[in-house]
Amino acid sequence: MIEDADISKAIAAAAGEIGLADPDLVKLADSSRALFRADGTLANADALARDLRKRFPAAFVYREPLRTPGGRFAPLPPGVHARDLSPEDYQARLAELKRSR
After folding, report:
1. Average pLDDT of the chain, as a whole number
2. Cβ contacts of residue 54 below 8 Å, gap of 6+?
3. Among residues 2, 20, 55, 83, which is most buried (max CB within 10 A)?
4. What's the average model confidence in pLDDT over 32-53?
5. Exposed/middle/buried for residue 2 (C-beta within 10 Å: 0-12, 13-18, 19+)
6. DSSP three-state, residue 74
7. Which residues in 6-35 are b (16+ Cβ under 10 Å) and which e?
8. Is residue 52 within 8 Å of residue 33, measured between CB atoms?
């Protein structure tokens, strides 16, 4: 069985990927619903993170994907998502797209 701190770290990592803005919120995750694999690792960190987002949506950052003037998604480097950009980079990319109209 893994320690509570390891459960929190796994949930925090999964929640960070879906936009968690306040890592302290992980303390409110329902760890009683944690499921473990045979090797002792947490199997449902993603589900627990989505539950946090459902219960506390204001604690998660959501950004509209960048779109070209034609309505298509703007190209970003492979593996980079709009939610991963800093606010400054996001605004710069948005301004760049508007200039390209």
Report:
1. 79
2. none
3. 20
4. 90
5. middle
6. coil
7. ebbebbbebbeeebbeeeebbeebeeeebe
8. no
Q: What region, left, alpha or beta, does residue 71 occupy, with left being phi > 0 and alpha being psi -120 to 50 degrees? A: left
Kindly indicate the confidence band of residue 28, based on its pLDDT and cuts at 50, 70 and 90: very high
What is each CA distance from 65 to 40, 70, 71, 82, 91, in whole angstroms?
36, 14, 11, 6, 12
Residues 30-53 have a mean pLDDT of 89
Contact residues for 3 (Cβ-Cβ < 8 A; gap 6+): none
Report residue 16 as tokens. Answer: 């960070």
Dig out the tokens for 84 from the structure.
Answer: 């991963």
For the stretch 43-91, pLDDT in tens is: 999 899 989 988 988 888 765 555 666 666 566 655 666 667 777 777 7
Residue 66 backbone phi and psi in degrees, to 5:
-70, 135
